[in-house]
Design a protein that fits this description.
By secondary structure, the protein is mostly helical. The chain contains 7 helices and 2 strands, in the order αααββαααα. The chain has a two-stranded antiparallel ribbon. A hairpin with a 5-residue loop joins strand 1 and strand 2. Helix 1 crosses helix 3 and helix 1 runs antiparallel to helix 4. The protein starts with a helix and ends with a helix.
């Protein structure tokens, strides 16, 4: 398999949504995701249309709208997302478990190349079908914490991505994870938070 740019961008965007959700922002605008990943908005919108149709994300229109995950992160496997965007994980179709197609080999059963490609397919799927979005988000946040770097979306200027309590009301950030945020952000994140608080006091 070869991960296409479309597949890469889809996975990066899902990871961003997962990180933001863990930090108390369950919804992000497409412009925020495009700016963070330095991607064209139109291209990202096309990818999200595909992810939405497959039930991985959902959207809400309006001033406080955006995209959010449509299912628990533990139920989003990287292998499934890649298959959706790029097709089978197998390097050749005759060893694919999901999209088998007979190749041109006259003796498929005794084909040495096919035997090798079976091992390649199994190695790829063992990893990609095991790891979920929850796993990767946890690993990523752990790396931010270890490096004492504030993760993206931790300190947003306006709460555009939170869930509206009622239609038309301004969104309110979920503050139930404040202590967790402090731990995840590390010392640098705490400094950023304190700096903003002092600025507001002035």
């Amino acid at each position: 398999m070869k991960l296409s740019k479309r597949g890469e961008y889809a996975l990066r965007a899902l990871i961003d949504l997962g990180i933001a959700s863990e930090l108390g922002w369950p919804m992000l605008q497409i412009s925020e995701l495009a700016a963070k990943e330095k991607l064209p908005i139109k291209f990202l919108e096309q990818i999200f249309t595909q992810l939405k149709a497959a039930g991985y994300v959902k959207s809400r229109r309006g001033k406080f709208g955006g995209y959010s995950l449509a299912r628990p992160m533990s139920q989003i496997k990287f292998g499934a997302v890649i298959r959706l965007i790029d097709g089978p994980l197998a390097p050749i179709r005759c060893v694919s478990a999901t999209s088998y197609a007979r190749c041109s080999c006259p003796d498929e059963v005794h084909c040495g190349l096919r035997m090798l490609m079976f091992d390649v397919r199994n190695a790829i799927t063992t990893i990609l079908d095991r790891f979920t979005l929850a796993d990767i988000v946890e690993i990523t946040l752990r790396k931010y914490r270890r490096d004492k770097v504030a993760p993206p979306f931790l300190h947003r200027s306006i709460p555009l991505a939170s869930i509206l309590s009622k239609e038309g009301e301004p969104p309110v950030r979920d503050e139930s994870r404040v202590e967790a945020l402090k731990q995840l952000s590390g010392s640098r994140g705490s400094q950023l938070h304190n700096g903003r608080a002092k600025g507001a006091a002035k």
